[in-house]
Amino acid sequence: MVMATMSRHINLRSYTLKIAVAGIGYVGLANAIMLDQSYQVTLLDLNDAKVDLINKHISPIKDSMIDEFLPNVSKSFKATHNLEEAYSDKDLVIIATPTNYDVETNSFDTSSIEITIKNILLYNKKTTILIKSTIPVGYVNHVRDIFKYDDIYFSPEFLREGTALYDCLNPSRIVIGGKNKKAKKIGKIFKKLSLNRTVPVIHTNASEAESIKLFANTYLAMRVAFFNELDTYACKKSLDTKDIIDGVCTDSRIGHFYNNPSFGYGGYCLPKDTKQLLSSYNEIPNNLMKAIVDSNHTRKEYIASKIKESKSKIVGIYRLVMKSNSDNFRESAILDVIELLKQHGQEMVIYEPLLKVNHIDNIPIVKSFKEFVNTSNLILANRVDATLKPYSEKIFSRSISNEN
Question: Which of 168, 235, 249, 269 is flagged as catalytic?
Fold first, then answer.
């Protein structure tokens, strides 16, 4: 159904607009495939392996819809590591490079964006630059001043890992940090390609757009933390977590979403965005923002303490990925739980099919699932899938549904 709906965009193809996308990650690749439906798109990445895969129409990331659409992109769709080829004749350059949180500076490491802007302007001083990487509040104005270049804008992404292309095509809102004619044109480009024909396009100043991204993700983290603390309460009081959550979430103002307990929030965005927003509150009165960040660590400590109480000789860690249908370990809550268990001297084994190594931090990686189950006295699983269900008597998980 989605493929059929998207086919109407193919007829809109126009080579009057050439677009480059810097960064072949979830954001960059999903946006590039969407934009390819109407425009000429070139992807840039310095990772030769990613470039080669894209040019063979193979996705380097796990996303079922990207896997479906990538083999059917236009003939003009290509990836390169050549800066001049990527930037020299483009009307719009989208930056989707990673911005990890730096604990030493209490801010995002935005160096990849600055390097990218410098390279873009080296080959093209007439293009429009659109940042889609997550950035601190005030960053666009900062780089406009540094590079003496005004045509830099920001548009936050609200993509979920594993469904990035679907979310690109079905946005809840399109936010553009700019109100002039060029910013309005960017908004029209993204609305044109949206399958949600009534999607609102919100134009703000740059700093407001940056704030929207950080506050939205911090709210989601707060919701995860809330239901995790609800679950901790239920555990300590010997209550049924699911019954409480079902009763609470029937209220339409609360809703049945983002309410499945876990070992903590993780992934590409929530941990770093909450910390960035908290650091922005320096000298601004707050309680809630700090509590959201602190709550995530408290939850992991509680999970580790529950495992310690079990006095299990060997604890099996089932998957390191952040959630089901993911290939991402970054900031996965289970990693911090493992570290806490190591401090208690807990013996562990790990089952993670995505890993090719034999050990992580001296913890054995068991390649055979059967051997993993037989070795483990207790299996720690952030999310329980069909593979694990036959071994329910061994499983420790706080998940109460199939939702991530």
Answer: 269
d(CA 134, CA 213): 7
DSSP 146-184: HHT---EEE----PPTT-HHHHHHS-S-EEEE--SHHHH
- 8 pLDDT more than 50: no
Domain boundaries, the chain: 2-204, 240-396
Residue 323 pLDDT level (bands cut at 50, 70, 90): low
Domain 2-204 has CATH 3.40.50.720: yes
Which pTM was predicted? 0.90
- The number of C-alpha atoms within 13 Å of 347 and in the hemisphere containing its C-beta is 7
Q: What are phi and psi of 2, to 5 degrees?
A: -65, -40
Q: Residue 157, Cα to own-chain centre: how many angstroms?
A: 9
Reading the block at residue 256, the tokens are 């049945």
Contact of 44 with 69, CB cutoff 8 Å:
no
- Give the integer Cα–Cα distance in Å for 201 and 176: 7
The three-state DSSP-derived secondary structure of 30-85 is HHHHHHCCCCEEEEECCCHHHHHHHHCCCCCCCCHHHHHHHHHCCCCCEEECCHHH
Confirm or reject CATH 3.40.50.720 for domain 240-396, answering yes or no: yes
pLDDT range class, residue 9, cuts 50, 70, 90: very low
pLDDT of residue 325 exceeding 80? no
Average pLDDT over residues 254-263: 95
Active site residue 269: yes
User: What's the mean per-residue pLDDT of the chain?
Assistant: 92
End-to-end CA distance of the chain: 24
Answer whether residue 5 shows pLDDT above 90.
no
